[in-house]
Amino acid sequence: xxxxxxxxxxxxxxxxxxxxxxxxxxxxxxxxxxxxxxxxxxxxxxxxxxxxxxxxxxxxxxxxxxxxxxxxxxxxxxxxxxxxxxxxxxxxxxxxxxxxxxxxxxxxxxxxxxxxxxxxxxxxxxxxxxxxxxxxxxxxxxxxxxxxxxxxxxxxxxxxxxxxxxxxxxxxxxxxxxxxxxxxxxxxxxxxxxxxxxxxxxxxxxxxxxxxxxxxxxxx
Length: 220
What we know:
Elements: E1 2-7, H1 20-29, E2 34-37, H2 46-56, E3 59-62, E4 64-68, E5 71-76, H3 88-98, E6 101-104, H4 120-131, E7 141-146, H5 151-164, E8 168-171, E9 183-187, H6 194-203, E10 206-210
Parallel strand pairs: 1-2, 2-3, 6-7, 7-8
Antiparallel strand pairs: 1-9, 4-5, 5-6, 9-10
């Protein structure tokens, strides 16, 4: 199954231009099997997510993109924001207790710079600096294809996942209509809801997949 596990909608994510209905309609049109709502530090009421799925006859799964001091985490299995979630270790304990899953979102941020020297030694130093982030020891996957990242940034994320020997996801990180479907995650098993998604992420049996070409602005 092909699912976009990282998307944003307004007003829960105030930087998104998408309504949930627009997101679902476009995801269906381009052939995705489902989407995850992962708004910034905002959790959907599970009843509202269930209603969205039923009203649109589509697989809609709740999640959240949590902002921590160590980076952004895509979290599946939690239902509310609790004080202290700015620390990745705290988020990890909450998710572990809930039996959920975590994926590191756009791991190239803060460490990879396209304007920096790209010779092997300099590139390796950026990788080493990124790998020192302790958050990688707390997660189940790494986002290696982000629809809002450049090709170079995504390649850097892929190199990180290889060094970590960890499976990589793909997602649009959609904030507007044209973002939807750039990348998604291909799961080898059937996903019918949140529990299935968590199980599949923790199994590592998934891969990133390009759904349609990147925008020219992302091929810089």
